[in-house]
Amino acid sequence: MAATYEAERDRGLTRLLEIVRALPEGERPWCSGVALAAGTASGPLAEESFGWAVRYAAYDERADRGVELPRERWLPVRRDTLFDLASLTKLCTTIVALRAVERGLIALDGRVAAYAPECTAAAEHGITVRQLLTHTSGLIPELPLYEEDGMEWRWARLAAEPPVTPPGTARRYSDLNFLLLQRVLERTAGRGLDRLVQETVTGPLGMADTRFNPPASWLPRIAATEDQRRPWGKADRGMLRGVVHDENAWALGGVAGHAGLFSTAGDLAVLCRALLAGGGPMLSPESTELMLTAPGLGFEVDQPWFMGELAGRGAAGHTGFTGTSLVVDRARGVYLVLLATTVHPRRRAGDSAPRAAAATALARAVG
After folding, report:
1. Cis peptide leading into residue 231 (ω within 30°)
2. Is the pTM of this model over 0.85?
3. Residue 78 to residues 34, 242, 325: CA-CA distances in angstroms?
């Protein structure tokens, strides 16, 4: 029986690798390059990389295709390649928030304005920390903070933005929730979110390749993202590599509650194994259970559109705009990390079918 299970698992993992290997291939590949990490609480099942971390110099709008660098300047994705995590950053911000709850610095049902009184709209409408974490604050998805002249005005515009539906009555995914949460955490801890993530998550877990604003010395290992220009982008910044892709995170100095972290698939696998094992040393098992159980705090729960057949038994995870995704399935005891460069050389309409297919392959491999 054990031999049969192992054979089925190996066939499933082979299928998973076939799916991921094909993602950077073809005339219109899903991504330029991708790194995969899949495993259990005890260790990895598959860790591979395919395609290119750097391939394009620019995007040609008239030809609707990327302008490729000379072939000798293409750089492959390796196991130590860092990717812009985009909204996977929210998961680390969430863990920092739950740790602050454990320490008594904030309460889940505490009002945002009690911790950050400058958030005047949150004060007027009684928005709570829990509503930020569950995207039920009523705030719109985003604001063009990058258009404001200076950091003070950017934060002031965020603080004055009112909800469009009464808090607690409807779910609307919003980056603004995690920017307000960042403000709460920084005010109550007395230091920046970058330090809080290091103290709470990356330091205790030994995630040495995960940080905001990676130093210049890391650049050779960082995957490029987008030739960011209008009209497809929101700012004219050219080909980006080693600086955050998200325009608002960039405008806020690269450290933001909703985006800005860079990491490797291997580092995120360490995070996943810690969550599968109950959250230590980051969080207590009780906080981890609360965070990962429907409706989820910061984490999305049972979403087949990117989790495939891993969804349905309490799987938790998230996606990121640059092509990243992470799923932790405690029922099966497995995790799946896909870090891809779907915006290199430019963003297109989102397609999560490859993420779902990879997750389904893993689900079938482990049963």
Report:
1. yes
2. yes
3. 9, 16, 18
69: CB partners within 8 A, 6+ apart: 54, 55, 56, 57
Token pair, residue 347, equals 């963003």
> Which of 346, 350, 321 lies closest to 66, judged by CA?
346
First to last CA, the chain: 14
110 to each of 101, 104, 181, 216, how far by Cα in Å?
10, 11, 12, 40
- Which of 33, 15, 90, 44 is CA-nearest to residue 267? 44
Tokens at 244, concatenated = 């955050």
Alpha helix segments (H runs only) across 190-316? 193-197, 203-205, 247-251, 265-276, 285-292, 304-307
Q: What is the pLDDT along the chain (367 residues), one digit of tens a residue?
A: 566 778 888 898 999 999 999 999 998 899 999 999 999 998 999 999 999 999 999 999 999 999 999 999 999 999 999 999 999 999 999 999 999 999 999 999 999 999 999 999 999 999 999 999 999 999 999 999 999 999 999 999 999 999 999 999 999 999 999 999 999 999 999 999 999 999 999 999 999 999 999 999 999 999 999 999 999 999 999 999 999 999 999 999 999 999 999 999 999 999 999 999 999 999 999 999 999 999 999 999 999 999 999 999 999 999 999 999 999 999 999 999 999 999 999 998 889 999 999 999 999 999 8
